[in-house]
Amino acid sequence: MNYARLALTAVVAWVVDSIYGFLVFGVALNSEFDRYRPGVFRSVDAINANLPLMFAASLIGLFFLAYIFAKGYEGGPGLQEGLRFGVVVGLFELFGIWIPDYAVYNYGR
Fold first, then answer.
1. 18, 71 in Cβ contact below 8 A?
2. d(C-alpha 30, C-alpha 24), whole Å
3. Are 62 and 13 in contact (CB under 8 A)?
4. Cα–Cα distance between 19 and 75 in angstroms, integer?
5. Under a CB-based contact definition with an 8 Å cutoff, are residues 47 and 78 in contact?
6. 3-class SS at 105?
7. What is the pLDDT of residues 16-40, one digit of tens each?
């Protein structure tokens, strides 16, 4: 596995995801999200304070996603392959979904 290409893929996906997220969720749908503040979503200031956490977690999550795509199924024993896949998918969900959601939604730890 070429880790340099894996890292480049993750960084490019992170840049595209960040730009898309800003344009769609930060600009186009901002007025829609304002309808549900402060109940469902955090205030804009609170989200901005959590942006470094969200961006760092998204980058790590996209590394795991690129790894899942590049690694695939190697033909090993089923239990071993399933455990590896489950751990990596769990890490992707933690860094790619749960932590960024924490930065946006109005709930505690």
1. no
2. 8
3. yes
4. 37
5. no
6. strand
7. 999 999 999 989 998 998 898 888 9
- C-alpha torsion sign, points 101, 103, 58, 86: negative
How far is 70 from 104, CA to CA, in rounded Å?
A: 30
Do the Cβ atoms of 95 and 57 come closer than 8 Å?
A: yes
Closest of 96, 107, 98, 105 to residue 25, by C-alpha: 105
Scanning the structure block, which residue is given the tokens 């469902």?
Answer: 40
pTM, two decimals, is 0.86
Query: Concatenated DSSP letters for 27-81?
Result: IITHHHHHTTTTTTBPPHHHHHHHHHHHHHHHHHHHHHHHHHHHH------HHHH
Cα–Cα distance measured from residue 91 to residue 85, given in angstroms and rounded to the nearest whole number: 10
